[in-house]
Each structure stands twice: as C-alpha cells, then as structure tokens.
Amino acid sequence: MMSVKRFVMGSGERFAVLIDGNNFPMTYPNLYSVIYLRNRGQSINTIAAVLEDIKLLYLLLDKLEIDIEQRVKDQNFLKLNEIESIVNLANFKRHYLLNQKSQRKILSFPRALRKEAVRSKFLLQHDYVSKELIYRRLTNFAEYLGWLESYFHSSCTTITNKAFKARRPQESIDESMDYKSFDQEQLKIILNQIDPKSHKCIWTSDFLNYRNELIIYLFLYLGCRKGELLNIKLSDLVNKKAKLEETELSESVRKKEGTSYITIRRNHDDKSDSRLYQPLVKTRSRSLALNLNLKKKIDEYILKYRSAIPNAELSDFLILSVQGQPLSINALNKIFAQISEKVSFNVHAHAFRHTWNDKYTDKSLALVVSGKTTEDKAENDRAYLMGWIPGSQSARRYAKRAENRRAMEVGMEIQKKFEEDNG
I need a surface site. Which of 211, 228, 267, 327 has the fewest CB within 10 A? Predict the structure, then answer.
C-alpha cells in the first residue's frame, strides 16, 4: 500500500515523500514534488496534501488497469473516456475506493406516516466528498499528469491538463456559507465552561484548566490562527519596558507607554520545534498589543502552571503538553472537541477569528462614523492585525460581509418605513 511519509532534515526543513507498497520512494511523484512544489517554496502541508492526491490518482489508475508511466513514455496519453472514469471515481471517499465498509444510514418513516404495513426504508450514502475536495483532487491530477507528459515529451501538446480542469465542479460564490462566528450568548457559555474557578471544569488538573483557558482567550482577543498560537514562544512576549522597532507596528497601533506585546512570527522549518507535523504560520509576522487582562492570564499561566510541568524549562514554546513538549495540532483539536461536547454546539478555532473580525467591524464602523478614521485606513489596520497584505482577498471578504450587513439594515429600515406609511 502506498503512503506519504514525513521527515525532518538536519537543517530543520520538513519534507514528505510518496513510497510504494515495498517501502521504496516513487520516482516521478517525488521528482515532481521537489521540482514543482518544494523548489517553488510550497509548505510541507501543501506538499503532503498534493502527494496524498497523487497517491489517490495512482490508486484510481490501478483500479482502471492503467500503467500511467509506461503509457506516457509510449506517448499513449489518457483518452477522454479514461479521464471521465477517473473524474467520476474522484468523487468518492477513500474508504469506498478501497472497498472498505462505507458509512451508511437507514432512515425509516414514523409509524404514523406509513401507508403500507411493509416498513419503508431509505438508504443514505455518505461516500461522496465535498465539491471543494473534488476541485482540489482534479487540479492536482491535472497538474501532475501535465508535468509527467511534458517531462517525457517536452514538445508534445496534450489535452490531459485542460480536460481534468474542465471537469472540476464550479466553486461556490456564496462566501457566507462557511462563515460561522459566535454570538454573544455562545461566547458567554464557552467562557463560563472553561473558567478554571467554575465547578463545570472540563479538565482534571489546574495546568490543563489554566492552559486551555489561556488558549481560548488568545484566540478570542487576538483573532489568531491555530498555527500562529502553537508557534508563540516565551521570547515572543515583549514586556512593557522593552522597545519595539517602529517597522513592526502599523501606524494606528504604535507602542504606547505601559503596553505589552506578543509577536507572531513566520518560522517554517524551525530547528527548535520537535513536532514532525509543525504548525505553520500562514500570515505575515506582526506584533499585537495585549490588554492587562490577557497579560495577567499569560503571566499566571507561565509562573504558576507552566513552570510546574516536567521539562518545561527546556522549551521556549508558550503552549505545552503535560509532558513539556510543544502542543500538537491534534491535541489542540481535541481540546475544541471536548469543549464542543460540553456546550452542545460546534466550537472551533477559526470561529474565534471570525468573531474577532465581527467585533472589529463594529468598532471600526463607529470610528468611521465619528470621523476618527476612514474606511480605507480601518481596512489597512485590519489587514495588519490579521497578518494579511493590504487589499488581500481575505481582508476584502470581511469588508464585503460588513457591506452586506449594512445593506440588510437599510433593507429592514425600508420595510419598516413601508409599514409605518401604510399603518
């Protein structure tokens, strides 16, 4: 069975290779990943994801009894009906393609709705993947096969790349579908649930309770990503007497007397990070101000609880496991799963980032109305605080959401005016 293996080089660089069933590296997929991905600066997570899709492609080709490498060498490129077959199979989950037990549910009509004595059943299949995953798979199939063909026959023109990309599902244009932030009531429930002084404590030790509370407050107050939070080091905490470089701060958040800061840094392939699956910082480096409440929680966690963990003095990372190692992405996800189970709704890290942006929109709109800032300046400040390039698609997404909210408010006012005029 093929598999993707990750490893850490002596330089600290993370890399991944695709190996075959005999535990040997597969020549062309790995050559492609080095030339087309690693040498172009793609992250380890991107490289591993692409190799997983290439692994799936070889699995599908094997099911169709196609030796793609020999076919390409012989200039016997994929035919349209073969491409259609691969595209169709790419819609399914891996366990289905491997002939493993599928996830199926049976629905029965309630007795009151039965028209016959025979029990009616619907079989619901859950073996299909999302449109977004299908889109990614077909894109990576197209890019790899196009590269493979040009590698052996640089002067040939084929339809393979275009044919796969033409069969990708249309991307959704409704950006609000995956935008889920917390309302005020949900935030209250979450913060009450994780309060270490509450009788509702989820975890069994003071270290876990105070560490996990700090994690939630860092997400809520800073709007950071998971990779950013898990990469914060003690050395990234700048006390109020230290001096920050002017270039580290946007004009609107210049250092004030008595303010402490935390620095988010891009540190791919950090030699001091022992995690094989290193959490990555996707955004730009930046310094963020800490209010007194958040600074107090950080200090309390470091001095009282982190310091009591074995081997904690050997690590510079802020968020540690009970073994004194940098916390992993999987362990962080487990924390959110535990909180979600207790509060009975889905709690995930990125929802705090959305919530932060909603709060920022409300605050910046008030400043714009009062004449203390402009919309352009407010959006540039949002980009800085989130680690985006000014004018980026991510920044535009939140600005568009704010515009939509204002449009809906105007629409409601118009409806209210109609009712008043006709009342």
Answer: 267
Q: Is the pLDDT of residue 249 over 90?
A: no
DSSP 101: P
- Contact (Cβ atoms closer than 8 angstroms) between residue 148 and residue 71: no
pTM for this entry: 0.69
Each residue's pLDDT tens digit, 60-75: 999 999 999 999 999 9
Amino acid residing at 248: E
Per DSSP, the residues of 261-329 read EEEE---TT-TT---SS-----S--EEEEE-HHHHHHHHHIIIIIGGGSTTGGG--BSSB-TTSSBPPH
- How many other CB atoms are there within 10 angstroms of residue 11's CB atom? 7
Q: What is the pLDDT of residues 359-410, one digit of tens each?
A: 998 898 889 889 998 888 888 899 999 999 877 777 777 767 767 777 777 8
Whether the pLDDT of residue 420 is over 50: the answer is yes
332: three-class secondary structure by DSSP: helix
DSSP 343-395: HTS---HHHHHHHHHHHHHHHHHHHHHTTSS-HHHHHHHHHHHHTPPTT-HHH
